[in-house]
Amino acid sequence: MNSDDATIFTLPDLNGCSVVELRQYTLHPNQRDVLIELFDREFVETQEAVGMRVIGQFRDLDDPDRFVWLRGFGDMAARQRGLAAFYGGPVWAAHRDAANSTMVDSDNVLLLRPAWPGAGIDSPQGLRPPPGAQAIPAGRVEVTVFHLKQPATAELLTLCRDRTVRTTMLGWYITEPSSNTFPRLPVREGENVLVGFELLAAASAPALRDRGLRATDLAAMLSPWLAKPPESLRLVPTARSALHA
Q1: Topology of 14-237 in CATH?
Q2: What is each CA distance from 48 to 5, 11, 77, 99, 169, in whole angstroms?
Q3: Domain ranges across the chain
C-alpha cells in the first residue's frame, strides 16, 4: 500500500467476520515447515494491517504435505479491499516467490459464512504468541466438512445447533454464495457445504460423550442431506496460531 493511500482498514473482531475462508494448501514434500516459518514471520500482522483477520494456521496431522489456515473478513467488500491491498503490496511482492515455491496447489478454498447468528467462532482461546515463538500449543482443532445436496435448510441447521449444544464446538459455517470478487485467488464454486469447527484439549475427547454430540457424530443423522461422506481434518496449531487450546 502506498503511503498516500487514503484507504482506512478496520480489523474485524471474530464476531464481525461474516465471511471466512477455509484454505487447504498441498505442498511439495518437506516444505510445510518452510512455509509455516515464513507465514508466521511475515504474513500474520501484515494481513491484519489491511483489514483481514488471520484466525488460525495449522499442520494437518494426517497429511505431512498439507497446510491449513483460516482467514476472516467483515464482508465480501472488505475481502476484496483487503486482498487487493495485501497481494498488491510490498510484503507479498517480497516473499511471494518463496511462498509459492513451497506449493503444489493453493486453490482448495471454501468461502464460508456463519450458519446462523452467533454460530461463528467468537474468539481465540488464547492470545496469539509473539513473533519468534517456537512452542507448539497442546490440543488440536478438528474440522468436519459436510457436502450437501443443496443449500443448508433451516431444519438441518436447527438439528446441528440443538444436537451439539454444550460441546467443544467452536463454530458452524455454511457456503457463502456470493461470487468471488477477487478471482486472482480461486475458490471452490458450485458446492454446498456445512462445516463444523471443534477445539479439543489434549485429554478432552473421552469425556465428550456425556456433554453432547460432536460434529463427527452427526453423519448418520445428516445422511438425508449429504451428497457424499463427510471430510474430516485433524489439525495442530502452529506456534503462532491465535486459535489454540
Answers
A1: Alpha-Beta Plaits (3.30.70)
A2: 17, 6, 16, 18, 25
A3: 14-237
